[in-house]
Amino acid sequence: MNAQALLEIADDELILGWRNSEWTGIAPFLEEDVAFSSIAQNEVGHARALYQLVAEELGTTADELAFDRKPEEYQCSQFVELRLVPDWARTIARHCLYEDADERRIKALVESDDPEVAGLAAKIDREEAYHRMHAQMWFERLQGEPQFQEALEELRPMVDQRGEHLPEFEQLWEEMTEVRRSVAGATW
Amino acid sequence: MVTEERVWQALAEIPDPEIPPISIVDLGVVRDVSVENGTVHVEFTPTFLGCPALEVMRDQMAERIRELGAEPEVEVVLDDSWSTDRITPEGREKLRASGFAPPAPRESGGPQLVQLRSKAFKCPYCGSTETRLESIFGPTPCRSVRYCESCRQPFEQFKTI
Asked: Fewest CB atoms within 10 Å of the CB: A82, A100, A182, B103?
């Protein structure tokens, strides 16, 4: 098992799940409020399952990986760190680009020699199929809009950009880890 | 002495926390039950990985097994073995009777948008296939929302996973 590679994916899913959940209650349509909340819930669920696999390998726990690391230890891409609320065009552009890139890496994991990794990846892929269809519907709807095309052009080069975190990641991290930092070992 | 059959019976009495008309055994999430020296080992497969009902189901299973006088050992299996095809025929009928359209059978290649947009899905109220996709996501990630053109009733369609 390549724990580092799995951690990258898990971190992307956790942070994107967080960002998607920022639309809960304020999306432009009720259906999208529900969709982004559901997608966020799925992404966080995928992160948790991946953290569990990695945690067994590293002798730690999923919660410790998700909440007890320092900001610089997270491996997520800058692309998922971007705080895009309230910009719907850029949010949908990221959604389309992310689902496309994510499909490729998850499908590669389905072919893994490690049966645990392959099995989990296959399950994740079947859930992601609905994220992809949701992204596809929005792509069809917005593809003729210059604002959406500009957002795609702007964000495309960022998809797999890792390394330094964006300034807005710090604030996300503080909020996300607040409970665990105030009550060590808190569970919920 | 607790038998496997007795455990299956007890688990079949646990309602799905989100859709109480069907039990967790109807839902097909209990993959295996084995009993050894007073310990009951249950293999449990999540439906959706982010489903908040997972912990509730796991704890309820453990509680039922303790009530039988045995020690529970519930193993959560994170592989690809659960699918909506594992929902039992009884479970599907209970879903339909509660106003949820049961999931379509799983096909190779996974679900496609063109299929969701087709009129292949049956209204659980009137049986018409004159239904259209309203939203891929519904009240929970496992359901979509469709609208029946015949009886003019919106309904929840189980996603095929």
From this structure: A182
What domains does chain A contain, in order, with CATH numbers?
Answer: 3-182 (1.20.1260.10)
- Please give the DSSP secondary-structure letter assigned to residue B135: E
* All structural domains of chain B with their residue ranges: 4-76, 97-158
Q: Is B126 on the interface with A (CB under 8 A)?
A: no
Span A14-66, pLDDT tens digits: 999 999 999 999 999 999 999 999 999 999 999 999 999 999 999 999 999 99
Cα angle for residues A39, A43, A45 (degrees, 5° grid): 115
Residue of B nearest to A115 (CA): B79
**A134, B50: Cβ pair inside 8 Å?**
no
Domain B4-76 carries which CATH code? 3.30.300.130
pLDDT tens, B57-103? 999 999 999 999 999 999 999 999 999 999 999 999 999 999 999 99
- Note whether A85 and A22 are within 8 A (CB): yes
In A, minimum Cα distance to B141 occurs at A38
